[in-house]
Amino acid sequence: MELRKNLFCYLMVAPALLITLALGIVPMVTSLWWSFLDYDLIQAETAGETFVGWRNYQVVLSDQRFVTSLVNTVVMTVMVMALVVALGLLLAHVMNAKYRGRAIVRTLICAPWFVPPVVAAAIWVWMLDTDRSPINALLMDWGLIDGNLRFLTDTTDAGPLSLPLASVVAVRVWNGLPFVVIFLLAGMQSISRSLYEAASIDGASLIGRFRYITLPLLKPVLGVIVMLLLITGFGHFEINFIMTGGGPQDMTNVAAVYAYQQAFNFFRFDYASAASGVVFLMTSVICIFYIRAQIRKDK
């Protein structure tokens, strides 16, 4: 009986495992293997594919464009994570409170979740266009600026920070915020209201209740959210690619876009795989630290 039960469970998860194997694990392993080959798509038919070891990683890591994209990846991921978590905590409180019209507010906050990132990026390209941006028109009507801001083409920078980078970060925050808000709202609703009532009787302020009740009890949820945001942030592609293509002057270029450019612009699948391997290593380190923390917590 136990064997039949286990067999049924394996049969139920088998389709998902096969899809994950075919669309996830096999392409990942193939890409890692290519990163150790001399794989120029233009010359592959005549020159073949030869094993070169770590040479592709040395070439990629010595490329200033990849180093810049790696710095941009880290900077944008940290900025998106910090802003999304901070705004998510605020909006989750708004959604968790009881007031008239709460359903409408919840719908508006979650609306970006129903817009695919590709569509959202295309809409924001128009919204941030230098000559046709309604944001520029609004800011000029308010007297805050004298001329159009070049949200996606301004080449003025302050180290890794620039207006195009900030614009892309804002769109990524807008698109990813509902996911975090839903997670945090679910965590808040699992906290007993009796704890807040007891704290109010003891004279705790709103900030005190948030600091000593909400935050400590949301730590498990926040840990999962931070890990997911870091992993997806390091591998993020679509919004950066559609909005700026990595420009101007690689100011918004990230590792995933760099890998795409190497593969489909220059046909160097070996360099693209090596760049992807670096991203894979970064995300693996995050996963290892998270798993170790969970094991320590369980012990």
UniProtKB/TrEMBL annotation:
Pfam families: BPD_transp_1. It comes from the Bacteria. The keyword Transmembrane applies. Residues 70-290 form the ABC transmembrane type-1 domain. One of its GO terms (biological process) is transmembrane transport. GO terms for cellular component: plasma membrane. The keyword Lipid biosynthesis does not apply. The chain crosses the membrane at residues 7-34, 70-92, 104-127, 161-186, 217-237, 271-291. It is found in: Cell membrane. Gene3D superfamilies: MetI-like. It is a multi-pass membrane protein. PROSITE patterns: ABC_TM1. Keywords: Cell membrane, Membrane, Transmembrane, Transmembrane helix, Transport. Belongs to the binding-protein-dependent transport system permease family. This is Carbohydrate ABC transporter membrane protein 1, CUT1 family. It comes from Marinovum algicola. The lineage of its organism: Bacteria, Pseudomonadati, Pseudomonadota, Alphaproteobacteria, Rhodobacterales.
